[in-house]
Amino acid sequence: MSENVEVATVQPAPTNEAKPPPPPNQPQVPAVQAATYSASSAEVIPQATEPQGSLLKVQEQINPSAISPAECSCEGGSGAPAQLVYALGELGYDFSTEARRDSIQQHMGEGANPQVPQQLLAYLDENPWDAAAITWTLSLDATPIYAILPQGAYAAQGYERLRQFLREQLEEGVERISVPGVIMGQVMLMSGQVVPVILPTLRCMYSWTTSALIEAVCGSSPNESATQGVANFLERIYYELRNLGITPQERAINYSATNALNVERIFESAIREEMDLDTIEVEPSPLCRPDSECWDVKLTFFNPQRVFEQARKVYRFTVDVSDVCPVSVGRVRSWFVR
């Protein structure tokens, strides 16, 4: 009986043959494409296995910022260094390309000129979404130093704030605005100039005029000496100590120009003693709370009527610049020096 049994041999399946389909009762699992998460738009964006030609062009135009990143802070806890900035300047706008400018001009209507701020603001009042199609800039002495790009869930409020600042410059005489934030990448303007891009923080974006700040410090009817003292302080920060607001020292001095509370206390005392501003210094604070970066801003005053008879007086306050929005720490201190 065993002689009639034939042994069957099983040949291995060729490697190039397709795999058999799964059993009918087993659901098929579709292949999942790699994806990345965009924090600005809160959407999952599929990531292609190979970069497309258009993506390569964008990467060539937007390179990492040439500004060295700060050593003391990281963005989002991901370990990637982020460069904090607290800059002062005047608000402007650019269209980046002639095509973008012409497109907005055609949507504004025949005879309209987007280069005229009043006409552009009137158009954006009716079409607020187009505020994102404009490159908003921060300038010093008519030279753009940064582009401002609101992002995230409150980007619309950021563009609304920029439109408000521009309108205040045109109608109310606003001279300076403060733009704190993080530097991320760069952008090319129509002139060919490449400037870093600031992702702004709305919490400490301010606009002001010198006259309004003088009134806040000296009252509604300030005397001439008080007006000159405060104006001298602001003008020296605006012009003599003008900076890009990148280093901790620069962010501390720029914040001191926007912190009217400390300035008010200092100049009230200096005005009573008939003293004028002599020097502005910034130095590391010898004491600082944990996980902070503190700098002392020192304002030295002298009496112009008694230069040799009366000692100079120093006022010092501390600024913590570890966060994107600097903050004053402690009280204003003062003492006399030779």
Features:
2 domains, 28% strand, elongated, 338 residues, alpha+beta, four-stranded antiparallel sheet
Descriptive account of the structure:
The protein is an alpha+beta fold and 338 residues long. It folds into two domains: 63-208, no CATH class; 219-338, no CATH class. 29% of the residues lie in helices and 28% in strands. It is built from eight helices and twelve strands. It has helices at 53-61, 98-108, 117-126, 155-171, 210-218, 224-240, 248-258, 260-272, and strands spanning 35-38, 43-46, 83-94, 135-140, 143-148, 176-188, 194-200, 206-208, 276-284, 294-302, 312-320, 327-337. The strands form three sheets. A five-stranded mixed barrel has the order 3-4-5-7-6. Strands 9-10-11-12 form a four-stranded antiparallel β-sheet. The chain has a two-stranded antiparallel sheet with strand order 1-2. The longest helix has 17 residues, at 155-171. It is elongated and about 70 Å long.
How many beta strands in the DSSP annotation? 12
Average pLDDT, all residues: 78
Summed up, the helix count is: 8
Uncertain spans:
1-13, 26-78
Number of separate structural domains = 2
The rounded Rg comes to: 30 Å
What topology, given as strand order, has the largest sheet?
Answer: 3-4-5-7-6
State the gist of this model.
With 338 residues, this protein is of the alpha+beta class. It has eight helices and twelve strands. The protein has two domains: 63-208, no CATH class; 219-338, no CATH class.
Topology at a glance:
Layout: E1 35-38, E2 43-46, H1 53-61, E3 83-94, H2 98-108, H3 117-126, E4 135-140, E5 143-148, H4 155-171, E6 176-188, E7 194-200, E8 206-208, H5 210-218, H6 224-240, H7 248-258, H8 260-272, E9 276-284, E10 294-302, E11 312-320, E12 327-337
Parallel strand pairs: 5-7
Antiparallel strand pairs: 1-2, 3-4, 3-6, 4-5, 6-7, 6-8, 9-10, 10-11, 11-12
